Each structure stands twice: as C-alpha cells, then as structure tokens.
Amino acid sequence: MFMHNKRLMYTVRVAEPNPGLATLLLEQFGGPQGELAAAMRYFTQALAEEDPGRKDMLIDIATEELSHLEVIGSIVSMLNRGAKGELAEASKTEAELYMSLNNQGESHTTSILYGGGPALVNSAGVPWTAAYIDSIGDPACDLRSNIAAESRAKIVYERLINVTDDPGIKEALGFLMTREVAHQKSFEKALYSIEPNFPPGKIPADPAFADKYYNMSQGEGDARGPWNEGEQWEFVDEREDQMAVDGGDGTASVRLNAAQKKTIAALSERLASDPASNPITGADLGAGPGAGSTTPLE
Description:
Blueprint: H1 19-25, H2 27-30, H3 35-48, H4 52-89, H5 94-101, H6 108-112, H7 139-162, H8 167-192, E1 212-214, E2 234-236, H9 258-270, H10 282-285
Parallel strand pairs: 1-2
C-alpha cells in the first residue's frame, strides 16, 4: 500500500521559467537513467526477492525514487509554466510563439504534444519503455546492475547541474545526485552481505578458462595491468593458442540422421554457386563514372 504526502521530499525553488532546461531535465524523468526507471527496477526486484532484508531495502529505495520523480517533474512543470500559459492562451504573436517553441533547444514536442507537462519521455522526446529495466532475477547480478544504474544517474545529474545557473535547481539536483551515492552504498553493502557473491549463480566457472586472458587485439597500444597480469592471470597472446582452446579442431558440426543428410545434400546441390560463372549484372549495365571495374559487355 502506498500513501502520498503532498510535501515534496526536497523543496523546489525555480528562479524563472526555462523551457530549454525543462527539456534537458526530462532525461531524469522519462529517460533510461531516470527516476521512473529506477523506481520500477527496484520495485519489481523487491516483489521477487526472497531475502527479507533486501526486500525491505528495495521497497524503501523504490519508493524514494518515486519521490525523486515527483521532484524532477515539479521542476519541469515550473520551468515550463510561463511557456505553457503563453501557448495555451495565445498571449504572444504567432511568430513569437513559434520562436519560443525552440527556445534554447527546447523540443517543440514537449510544448505541442504535452502542453509543457512533464511527459514520460527523455530529453530527445523518446517515450519511456520497460526495456530500460534490466533485472534478471539473481540478486548478485541485479545488485551489480543497480550499482551501475545509480552511477550512471549520478553522472547525468552532474551534467545537468553544469548546464544551469539557477541556484534553487542546482541545490535540488545536488540533493538527487547525492542520493544516488547513498543508494550505491546500500546496494554494495547488500551485495557483499551475500557470501560468496562472485561469480553470480550456482554453477562454478571452468577452472581451465577462468584465469586466462586472451590478448585478442594486438599491436600498438597493447597494455598490461592488474586486469591481465600477475599471478592471477595466464596471459595468452599466441594466435594458435587462442583458437580451438577446447582441444578440438575448431569447426562446427552436428549429427544428422539419414533423412536429414539427404535433405541437406539436396539443398546444397540446388543452391550451389558456379565459380566459373561471370554473368553480366544490372550494376554492369548501368555503370557510370566512379563505378570501378565492371564485367565487359559482349
């Protein structure tokens, strides 16, 4: 059960309307790193969580993310308030209204289609989608994904703080950014309270391959570090040792019954290429300057 309190979690103080900034802030309203995506990610994880402690934490943070959504939505609404009235009441000339629709990069979509309201779209006008939710139902995986999601959201908030000089908005965005840090800490503590938590899942990794580092991209720029050197790693840079690492011949095969073999043989015969053929093609017939070499026309 949810209950709404009319007091925002953080007081919204907007110095003056700014539709362009409102459009940018929609990134944290209906974007992939935004507050709705975070709330839905943690809420759905909580419903499936078997551990009572993690379940409680996820519900708490999911609910807080909804309050953050309300803060961002309120800022967007305040930033659009002047343009909203002007557009609805046609208080400006057509030319002035037209110019204001693209003020400071503001998307005309938010004004015409949504009337200046905080629509569930990102800053480019792309509608919110549940595809942003990447939960997979394993706590070790989902908690790592949550940490990454909070990290990305913090960076987006930093960028938004850098594009405004409105002190009230900067304060509110700073609060929201800081809460992303707090959530990262909670998720990390929850992750490391699971022992062992790496690798995720139950089936152990194959020891024959778990400690190998394959240097697949070779040339200028090769680098070594703790990610590929030391006692933990076997560094493999010989090309022959990077192929058919299972000891087989490195080809693909499948066992077919007699009927399947006959069908495949017929298919291969019907679709066989003639390597001696060099037919005149449409590209040859229509070739002009810049076409390169073509088949000579007889």
